[in-house]
Amino acid sequence: xxxxxxxxxxxxxxxxxxxxxxxxxxxxxxxxxxxxxxxxxxxxxxxxxxxxxxxxxxxxxxxxxxxxxxxxxxxxxxxxxxxxxxxxxxxxxxxxxxxxxxxxxxxxxxxxxxxxxxxxxxxxxxxxxxxxxxxxxxxxxxxxxxxxxxxxxxxxxxxxxxxxxxxxxxxxxxxxxxxxxxxxxxxxxxxxxxxx
Amino acid sequence: xxxxxxxxxxxxxxxxxxxxxxxxxxxxxxxxxxxxxxxxxxxxxxxxxxxxxxxxxxxxxxxxxxxxxxxxxxxxxxxxxxxxxxxxxxxxxxxxxxxxxxxxxxxxxxxxxxxxxxxxxxxxxxxxxxxxxxxxxxxxxxxxxxxxxxxxxxxxxxxxxxxxxxxxxxxxxxxxxxxxxxxxxxxxxxxxxxxx
DNA sequence: CGAATGACAGATATTGAAATCTGTCATCGG
DNA sequence: CCGATGACAGATTTCAATATCTGTCATTCG
Lengths: 196, 196
Fold this sequence. Notes:
homodimer; elongated; DNA-binding
């Protein structure tokens, strides 16, 4: 079956995810990926120049899913302040569910993130853009005050201020009971800062 | 010389720091500490029940230094808003200087922190208390508005919101050029949120 | 012809035997 | 008597030999 399908980058990425999930980042090899696909490892190198490039592509795909999952919250028809809280809450809930539901997978993901800081950087910029749009809308609606410098800077500040609630580096803290209160307090602080 | 002085917990802690500095957290052994002090390793165990307890004590000492260094900023005679910015800036500068000046030592420190999360937790509570006092003073002075819930919660929110600028987990980002702007933006956000 | 293969060199990881370390405690010496 | 010692058992780490992996490329196969 599998042998009859053409070997695409997409199929390789799926197999790589599977292998990473099963063996973890330290033991997942290109040979393993080839084995899952029933091809020689040389064939994998036709689609990805190096193992690092393959991992980077997996990381990108993984992060892309977050962007997609959040888009509905960024484009919700609510007032900007509620939209911002909704978006931040969704981001936190998403990460928290992932971290809590499968800690090993989260650890794997964290290793990949550490290896591909430039990909992460670009991902963060996407997220900050989504925030910036909400803040800009909020100003136009009169819900938020004019930004101190510009929308991008303010959005980045909001992103940084909520860092503890979306950066996987803090995943270990997300299991504690008082994290909800801490999150609510930071959201409240942020809203106060932005409101007109 | 060394043999004539009595063996105290204090001297053992100094030797342990020395050994951690020199060999790093992975290779520093109790035997090394004893060698530096010119005693048998059994003597070290008279003062610290386990190697873990010894490392914990070093961590505590290390964190205590931050508290002491920040006290002047917490008790400065300025208005509360300036005092808060001064304190947060001092905290960031302190950590940043440490991380930038000796990255290896910082890495060592980070390992110790990871091993002793309860000590870190207590340390954070001390820092949050210092913030809480400033926020409380600010409210009394009329510089800051009444807290949403209570001083402790607000102070914790300020601490969490500035996490990216004091948590060693983010030390790698502190070398980038735009970190100053990001810091200024979060400070500005925080001040806006608190001001009356 | 173009995609897939597998042999290969150099780099990296695994393994198990040997060395070192942790923590205890009976004994020593001032 | 009381702090310091060093031998010891079990746990952990190191080291070097062995195996596996990464990335290339001449060759094969459809």
